[in-house]
Amino acid sequence: MKHHGARSWGRSLIVSASFAIAIFASSAAHAQHAAIVIEPNAAGAKALSVISKPGSYVLGRDFVFSRSGADGIAITSPNVTLDLQGFSIISTSTRTGAGVDATGQSNVIIRDGIISGCGGAAIIGGTGANISGITASGNGSGITCGVGCVAADNVIQGNTGVGMTFSDATSGYLANVLQGNNGNTVGTSGQVSGGTSLGQNLCNGTTC
Asked: What are 168-182's pLDDT values in tens digits?
């Protein structure tokens, strides 16, 4: 197999025993290139996969993890799109960290998948994050985001903490369904903290 330099468009495919996240680079003509698969860290309380460069990534299959203190996926670069493609990130231990952690990053898009059982939040976004099409259940909390975020068309239910938490009113949420978060199954309490409702949200069956 031929190997190219760090700046080469063609990259070899590395198969991970745990799960696969692939980045697809596009040229000016939008041609698709080979996938790069990120291997999980072998040990330590670190994320099991780290996305450290801008680009578009996809989850290749369901991912189950249990390492104490570890996040499932850490995003350490701005300008990242992560499409879970309908697959699941599942923690089997309440001692784990977040499902996807993009703390401190900007312009991160996370969409279309299921995150459950994490000890931390299902998703931690940074500045200007866009989170959509996520089902988050049974986590320490649902979605936590910074300023200028948008959370739309998500189902957030049965998380131990608040369903969605935003830093301030510059973030907005639209067409989300929240149920039974923070131990509350009646009314809007504990379902959303901060942010600005853009409409069509339901909190325990009540408009919020």
From this structure: 999 999 999 999 999
